Amino acid sequence: MKRRSRILILILLALVYVVIAVRTTKMSGPSVQGQFLSFSQAHPVSELPASAKMMLPFASGGHLGYIDPRAGLLYAQLSDGRVAIDGRGWISYSRSAGLLELHDLTKKSAEIQAFAYPWFKSSWRMLVRGDQMGIANIDAKGAILWQREFPMQITAIDANSKRVVVGLLDGSIYVYDENGNRIVCSSQNLGGIRTVYGLAISESGDNIVAVSGLSPQNIETFKRENNAFVFAHASTLEKSSVLQASVALSADGSHALIARGSEVLYYSVKFNIARPLSLPRQSDAGPVARGDLLYYALGAVGSREIAILRTSAEDLGESDVVLLKDGLFEREWAGGTGIAANSNTFAVVFQDGVELR
Amino acid sequence: MKSERTHLSSALSVLVLLLLFSGKAAALDFQLPEAIDVRGFGSIPPQADVGSEVYGRVPSSSIELEQAQPEIRMPASGAVFFVQREATPGSAVFSFPLGNMIAIEHPEKYVSVIAGLGGEWDSSIASLQPEGQEIIPRLGAGAVLAGGEGSGVFSSRFFSVGLYDANNTLWINPIFLAPWIVDRSPPVIKSARLTRAGAPRSAYAELVPARGAKDPRLSCAQGSYELSILSYDSIIASSRLYSAPYRFVVVLDGKTILDSSFLGAKRGDTGLSFLGNQAPSINAVTPDGLYNVGTLVLSRGDHELSVQVSDYSGNMSAVKTRVVAF
Asked: What DSSP string describes B76-106?
């Protein structure tokens, strides 16, 4: 009798594990259609009002521009693709990390003397040095405010409104405030290769989540204590991967999505549990084998949603935007190339226009 | 200016290298693949024209190889522990400047980083790590990595190779691991400046005489001076890629007072240290792109100052100047 009960309990536990281990991605109810703004009918960016702070900047799908969500207006121009953009303007750059041209919203442009790629997030305007071993914080005019060098290559970078976080090939994590002062982040020495494969900092600045190490590979959480980040806990991943990962934390800091190659992982910060996600394509384009897809975490949308970019490994021009809420499938936009988002609203960018939600 | 060849510095290089590797070279077995052109360790980025301040104009801790074909062979066997994939240009995803890059762990805690790989390289890496299996992909020495159209800052057929010694915490100049290089031309010294120590933007004295000058004598006040040098080297004959030279030696009144080289770049808390300068590496170059070689003291009187710049093969150029300090 006892033996039967044990077997029954084991079977029940196995069923529970199967249910939570691979989070289902069942499509939610009928989607609400947003407002579509076409590039062909967009206003030129030169007509943009000088104050575009409330607008949503975007750069993908062969265009750059701004969306005015209140007025339902789109300002756009063609772009050759290498652009970093924010509410104050944009920097275009060449593949060779030269020819950095800064454009502000007053139609002025200036050249930035640098061997670097620009990277913008929140209010940060950074230059990532061409050898991937340094960063510089620049102001609206392109002048360097501070710069830092690292002894190994940068493998991951993220920022919230107050902190910028950098992970290195050797496993180090560097956190800086607005003035370039380093904030202590005590990483754990768990032995083996300690590379940081991806990381993200929460908008509140309370948590840093990093994928690091290889054998074993962990998702590590660092919590803010006073003016330092201390190791809180680690969750060992079932499968290690050598691939660089893109990581996005939800705005409420409850969970993160980790995208690497053809794999997406859900990580609960609160419960320190990581689970692989299955994201089958919902569109009419037909099922594509999982191994043929590549995923990138685009960033937080709203409080609990995170957007993912899904591209075809065969044809990198073919992509979808997928929105997940608490790690569960919420909506898919076939043909989406990117998003534009702030705390109140967001839009999905396509090759021919944007859909404002 | 006179050019001459010496075997002394080349012998020294070999000696230092042997000490550096302290018998581990056999275990590492690292050999740079043959290339049609090379931009050496310590070189500053080609985009940065000398004469203006440019962010990112720092000595390189890797070397750049131009291959005849859009592919590169693995310099040594090892385990691939990091793979960076370049995103599609124009997508919403940020791509890092090194493009498609891999990091490989070799025996004796050496790590190499190869960047500029093509778009099709990573499927072969992925095939080495089957889904669901705990296998760290291994690549053998000589394995071919496709380059395709190139990636990151590297155009097709150009690759960057860096070699890190985790035991000694320094990036090693891998040029000495390229026995196929035959370099017979000495570096060119374009400029050698003395600037008052602690006043980097003050007026400077130029040691390289102007063309046609008959009296290469220099007068300056006694005191401490920073010596900075602009010099280029071609590692491969008829190279289009200007490289940093290897070694700078300064002889004052017959006595060697400065001797620095691009043997490696030591890791520090604030970045990398080149030519004996403190980290970060920006300290190794002047704002307009000359190498900071060191500080020398000129006491009152007449001096004979010789600046010698040599390359990896020991080819040397020198500038000799009579300095009158008052």
From this structure: S-EEEEEEE-PPPTTSSS---TT-EEEEEEE
